[in-house]
């Protein structure tokens, strides 16, 4: 029977609600201001536009999840991608919903504050310490700035905090509760999301895995737990923290590649097969091409090893110089190069050595792995040739030429064996786009390859092609392909300019595209130039630098990435204090002096693992990186120090300061520091929000360090 009245009892942490509301107010208030492009919005906005237009791109700085989150904000606001992200400070048109574009990073930044509160509680510290952590995060100017624009650091920090909070919630829950595994699953999902936003998330993920491994090892040694219980918990950890993140990481790319199915500016970085799978671009050229390369086929051969720009095997009516500048001689035969542009001189004809015809039979006779062929240049009818003559720029390798008979003792050596390196069987047929082929010179066993060296003026600065004796030579892929039908040279030249195709449908699998894209992201690095606001990791710790994010075109209104100097200094002091205190504890414990109960000691050590360890894994890797770095890269590490500070203060207050007078003095000092942090945050708010506008003298007064670059106009 139903008993009335129905009562619901709920406990609400009003402090948590209050700091959450303040976080949302500080991050989302006047989010559309300024209504112009701010700093790296010019970078991320391009990717948002490409998502809206479903145009393929590759960003070597990280996986696609972060870009997709930003694009989701644009999609929710009706953004169609039609905006030129060409310069910082460009005004957004009235049709662009700026609030929507910046919404999701701002939400993530706001949620970091209550997450810091909850994470401190899960670390085993009091609500007062949790409030302190939340206030430090709330009043950090740099975190506010980074959250209010279309940037990714706030998203990364949110997922890192959520991963650790969820795992600790699982770890601290009662073993009898099956609902605790939902927290473990959420932790794995958050880890995958952190890695999916930026590769720096990998280090936090590895830290969490290390913590989980220690806990799991302790669980295995617990004799009070049954074998079945230990087995279930170990399997659940493996599934949630290893299998799920890997699957989700792949899933981010699946969504990315499913959405971006149109040809775009980064196509040329990918293989021919990848390009042909996209709508437009190369697919328009290759659509309906014959699949199998046959004798008489007309083909263009793209080098697999050319990066970051592609190039195709090429020849033209120009010979190698009789003598090079260093005095070495050449064959003076026709040049063979690799040319990074589409050109009619990239076409070659696959010829059977025993026949004179340069057309495809009916039915076509396919070329297979191991077959010996000749390659005839389509526009000049020269045979691809190599011999024991040093290459022009790589004298250790053989020259490759279009053979010219000068009636000297230099016979043609124009036979090449087809070696399909990715073949599935020994009788594999040479396939358009799909086959990765090595062309092995029959006479010398040298492999046709791109040396990567540019030729001088006489070679029109095209790339050198050589033949070199290699066990693993670079491959070539047939990109454009048609069946030749004209035997006469004039007719063949006309045919090369107006190709015909046979309709053959082929696709590349998702796994092939995923692996290729992943490899390109990890290996192809775009050229980086020095930036005015770039900095070194050691400069971050003392906040020697700042970044001017935005400056009004006619007034002194501006936004800077500057941290709260007081809380920044407190965080550094806490880091040093913890390390010093841990060293003293360890030395005393080594001498048999145990100052802390085992439970308190374990909590102190675990605090260091999560907070100091979190700072280290988000800071130390940057010391080893050879790339352009900015102050905002330090924010994930700084966040962990803000969690450390109040917890360490509670530890000192509870376990090291025994005198009531000293405890009161510590409370007074802490209150004074909190007031200073608030006043410092308020002082720098005009540079955080861009309002109100300050005079030149007021701006100069905010230049607390000579190394800061604060801009102002004198009137």
UniProtKB/TrEMBL annotation:
Native organism: Nothobranchius kadleci (African annual killifish)
Record-given protein name: Protein O-mannosyl-transferase 1
Chief location category: endoplasmic reticulum
UniProt feature coiled coil, ranges: none
Gene Ontology cellular-component terms listed: endoplasmic reticulum membrane
Enzyme Commission number(s) of this protein: 2.4.1.109
Cited PANTHER family: DOLICHYL-PHOSPHATE-MANNOSE--PROTEIN MANNOSYLTRANSFERASE, PROTEIN O-MANNOSYL-TRANSFERASE 1
Keyword entries, A-Z: Endoplasmic reticulum, Glycosyltransferase, Membrane, Repeat, Transferase, Transmembrane, Transmembrane helix
Functional pathway: Protein modification; protein glycosylation
SUPFAM superfamilies: MIR domain
UniProt entry tagged with the keyword Membrane: yes
MF annotations from Gene Ontology: dolichyl-phosphate-mannose-protein mannosyltransferase activity
Bilayer-crossing regions: 6-25, 62-79, 99-118, 150-168, 180-197, 203-222, 234-255, 566-588, 600-624
Coiled coil found in the keyword field: no
Membrane topology: Multi-pass membrane protein
Protein family (similarity comment): Belongs to the glycosyltransferase 39 family.
Catalytic activity as recorded in UniProt: a di-trans,poly-cis-dolichyl beta-D-mannosyl phosphate + L-threonyl-[protein] = 3-O-(alpha-D-mannosyl)-L-threonyl-[protein] + a di-trans,poly-cis-dolichyl phosphate + H(+); a di-trans,poly-cis-dolichyl beta-D-mannosyl phosphate + L-seryl-[protein] = 3-O-(alpha-D-mannosyl)-L-seryl-[protein] + a di-trans,poly-cis-dolichyl phosphate + H(+)
Enzyme class (EC, first level): transferase
Domain MIR: 290-353, 364-421
Pfam families found in the cross-reference section: MIR (PF02815), PMT (PF02366), PMT_4TMC (PF16192)
Subcellular location, record wording: Endoplasmic reticulum membrane
